[in-house]
Amino acid sequence: LYIACLQPLQAKEEIISFRLSSLNGLPDNSVRYMQQAPSGELLLMMHYTAYSYDGYSFRQLTDEEFQQLHTASQADHSISESYDRDNQGNHVTMETDALVYTDQQTGQQLRLPVINPQWRKLTQNLKCRVVTDHKGRIWVSLNGFGLYVYNRQTQQLRHVEKGDGSGLLDTNALVYMMLDRDDNIWVAEDHYGLVCLKTVEQNYETISPTERALSGRSAEIRMMSRLTDGRIIVANNAGQVFEADGALQNFNLLPT
After folding, report:
1. 8 A C-beta contact, residue 186 and residue 196
2. SS3 sequence of 51-72
3. Helix, strand, or coil here: 173?
């Protein structure tokens, strides 16, 4: 466990996730295509079958429903280098080292450095999909190279990938991505099922007096106490005792 500092802070944008896989009911981890039905259900196409998901349970689609979904997937060219539009009709072109995004309403052009030229040597067809959410964030999935999120307000570009410490992705092989009506981003991970990503604003900061890599429960906070001079004493499950200033900004390990 870590310390959540609840003093007034500027809101910080974070990405939270929910995962669907064979471990919690997804019939097949190899989702190849998705769309949202008018009823709100997610329609999920695998290699040889398809299911609908209503947030609680899965229903296998009929052969006719599967064929309709398969036809829709064939018409979706947004998973190859021929891709030229996102979900809102914004124009997208892929260059050697960047993706160029043109807002259809304002004409604003953004050059997003999300493509490493070295990747071109690893694949002949760099599969890409771009989704713009309801708040204007630009999400870019690159099959084999993870996910990028660009916030136009802060002009910050974040790369989300397996092993980055966030735990958001189990693999960088991303097969498909879509936005639902509730502004959730659904990503199909090759052989790992689905991950649902949502951006939220947090008004607190998580603080750890030790390295986050500390194994097991040794980082768990066992005691906190404020002294009369304003200093704070913190002890963790590993038997370490720290002295911190009143704002929990600086920690000093005390001798034991």
Report:
1. yes
2. EEECCCCEEECCHHHHHHHHHH
3. coil
Give tens-digit pLDDT for 68-92: 999 998 877 554 555 578 889 999 9
What would the two tokens of residue 123 be? Answer: 């694949």
Q: Which of 203, 249, 240, 202 is nearest to 221 (CA)?
A: 240
- In this predicted structure, the answer to whether residue 105 has a pLDDT above a threshold of 50 is yes
Give tens-digit pLDDT for 126-152.
788 999 999 999 999 998 899 999 999
CB 241 within 8 A of CB 256: yes
Taken as a whole, the chain contains a residue count of 256
Lowest mean pLDDT among 108-117, 180-189, 222-231: 222-231
Q: Which residues pair with 239 in a beta bridge?
A: none
Round to whole Å and give the CA distance between 137 and 141. 13
Check whether 214 has a pLDDT greater than 60: no
Torsion of CA 82, 85, 143, 153, to 10 degrees: 140
Pairing of β 205-207 and β 42-45 = unpaired
Q: State both tokens at 74.
A: 């064939």
Of residues 103 and 202, more confidently modeled: 103
Interatomic CA distance for residues 194 and 190, integer angstroms: 9
Dist CA 45 CA 51 (whole Å): 7
Q: Which residue reads 């499950």 in tokens?
A: 237
Q: Are 53 and 238 in contact (CB under 8 A)?
A: no
